[in-house]
Amino acid sequence: MTSAEIREKLKNKTVGVAGCGGLGSNCAVALARVGVGTLILTDFDVIAGSNLNRQYYFLSQLGEPKAAALKRVIHQINPSVSVIAYEIKLDPEHILRYFKDCDVIVEAFDQAEEKEMLIETVLSAFPEKPLVVGVGMAGWGMNESIHYRRSGNLHICGDETTEISSEIPPLAPRVGIVANMQANVVLEILLQS
Amino acid sequence: MRIILNNTPEEFDQEIITVDELLKLKKFTFKMLVIRINGNLVKKDEYNTALVRDKDDVMVLHLVSGG
């Protein structure tokens, strides 16, 4: 497939990204660069200085809501992407409402509880819809532990082991690897369909 | 029974077990889990009743924070 054919195929696709932190911001930027037509972004948080060690934001954006800030970043990279940004803390009802027409959903939350809520909601409500989750990416090194596996419509990226803590923080390299692995899976799904 | 657990073949002496028993046998003590049997989601309140049988395809995903 040529770059032009890829862009043509992606321009009618919609991807939902739940969370615009380390995983979501990097994954959404990768999807925007390759030309996914519509991105639906959700996040309730604002950008803090501590986010800049891994999230796709800039010093000039400190204090801005992440979803809206990411929309502006994306439009500086690829203005042809249609971005819908919601400043909300996603609950099951929002998931059903905002993500029902997405071709693929990306799970990009921080907290394990939130990840569980999203996965359970999507698997129950949309058993056919591809869901790409990121699980386990704290710390540094250990490239060999990061992997991909699949169970039906659930696609899992990460090491599935390392949990963030004060001694094992999330850092740009491993978070970026998993975010881009997620984008790579999304691309594979979209180009197959 | 023989099952597929997270894409790997596993053998158990029992012919049938609950999800709770499977988690104990495998020493999975995590709190945040997503479990599917043959693609069907098993909710938390079903762990002590949902059954794992011969030839089942079981996925256990342990959720850790970070993102």
Could you walk me through the main structural features you see in this protein, from its secondary elements to its overall organization?
The complex is a heterodimer of chains A (193) and B (67). Chain A has 193 residues and is of the alpha/beta class. In chain A, 39% of the residues lie in helices and 17% in strands. In chain A, strands 3-2-1-4-5-7-6 form a seven-stranded mixed beta sheet, with helices on both faces. Chain A starts with a helix and ends with a helix. Chain B has a single domain, classed as Beta-grasp domain (Ubiquitin-like (UB roll)). Helices cover 10% and strands 42% of the residues of chain B. Chain B is built from one helix and seven strands. In chain B, strands 2-1-7-4-5 form a five-stranded mixed beta sheet, with no helix packed on it. A two-stranded antiparallel ribbon of chain B has the order 3-6. The mean pLDDT of chain B is 95.
CATH topology group of chain A: Rossmann fold
Domain unit count of chain B: 1
**What's the CATH C level of chain A?**
Alpha Beta
Biggest sheet strand order of chain B reads 2-1-7-4-5
Instruction: State the shape of chain A.
Output: globular
Radius of gyration of chain A: 15 Å
Main traits of this protein?
heterodimer; A: 193 residues; alpha/beta; Rossmann fold; seven-stranded mixed beta sheet; 17% strand; B: mainly beta; Ubiquitin-like (UB roll); five-stranded mixed beta sheet; two-stranded antiparallel sheet; 7 strands
Would you spell out the secondary-structure blueprint of this structure?
The complex is a heterodimer of chains A (193) and B (67).
Chain A: H1 3-10, E1 14-18, H2 22-34, E2 38-42, H3 66-77, E3 82-86, H4 92-98, E4 104-107, H5 112-125, E5 131-134, E6 147-151, E7 154-158, H6 172-192
Parallel strand pairs in A: 1-2, 1-4, 2-3, 4-5, 5-7
Antiparallel strand pairs in A: 6-7
Helix pairs in contact in A: 2-3, 2-6
Chain B: E1 2-5, E2 8-11, E3 16-18, H1 19-25, E4 33-37, E5 40-42, E6 51-53, E7 57-62
Parallel strand pairs in B: 1-7
Antiparallel strand pairs in B: 1-2, 3-6, 4-5, 4-7
